[in-house]
Design brief:
Elements: E1 10-13, H1 24-33, E2 38-41, H2 48-65, E3 69-72, H3 75-80, E4 85-88, H4 95-102, E5 107-111, H5 115-123, E6 128-132, H6 148-157, E7 162-165, E8 183-186, H7 188-191, H8 196-211
Parallel strand pairs: 1-2, 1-8, 2-3, 3-4, 4-5, 5-6, 6-7, 7-8
Length: 212
């Protein structure tokens, strides 16, 4: 699909830690109803067959809302489910090989913590970058916070859009003003909230105000 950086404005990233007795798809749909502009299926540790089943269900859901679906880590699951793309960390499959496997029509996102990593990812075919963790995160206990200065350097080093991730809330989102990011990726700020739909609406409205 043609990638539009506006899809990064509110990038919801799933986590089954907060299902509260509901299905992952039903929680994801609340985020989409609230205005999430992109959805990442991030379910580490699931057997491949279960991940593929989840990806296919999420692809159908996202299709109804006209929102791109990205699968975390697994190029295989992304291709087999016809997801819109894949997101890779620095320790995952290299971006150049992933681009060859995906072809030109799929979205490729890559995590970067330095300007050097950002430039390498862009050269290897990435469509966007994820930078963080900005404010610490409950989903990655060993993640070190990325400074605002480092975030600005990443954004300045590349021509592809950058999305910030890691502990982003309505309280700290204004601190990212002027950093150069195209959007925010949010996990617990969406899926750990008692009202997912309202949380997304608040984050989306503030992101539009802060990021322009």
């Amino acid at each position: 699909m043609k990638f539009d950086k506006k899809a990064l404005r509110l990038y919801a990233v799933t986590d089954r830690s907060w299902l509260c007795g509901q299905s992952l798809a039903s929680r994801a749909e609340l985020a989409l109803k609230g205005g999430a502009t992109m959805l990442q299926l991030r379910e580490k540790g699931l057997p491949q067959a279960e991940l593929l089943a989840e990806a296919r269900e999420m692809k159908a859901l996202c299709g109804r809302y006209g929102v791109p679906l990205i699968v975390n880590d697994s190029v295989e699951a992304a291709l087999d489910s016809d997801a819109d793309g894949v997101h890779l960390g620095q320790g995952d499959l290299c971006a150049k090989k992933a681009r060859r496997l995906l072809g030109p029509g799929k979205i490729l996102g890559v995590s970067a913590r330095t300007a050097a990593q950002a430039m390498e990812a862009e050269q290897n075919g990435a469509d966007y970058l994820g930078a963080g963790a900005m404010f610490g995160t409950a989903t990655k206990a060993d993640a070190k916070a990325l400074s605002l200065g480092a975030l600005r350097e990443i954004c300045s080093a590349v021509s592809i859009p950058v999305v910030a991730i890691g502990g982003i809330t309505v309280e700290n989102l204004p601190l990212l003003r002027g950093s150069g990011i195209a959007g925010i990726a949010v996990v617990s700020g969406i899926f750990a909230q008692p009202n997912i739909e309202e949380s997304c609406r608040a984050l989306c409205a503030l992101a539009n105000e802060v990021l322009g």
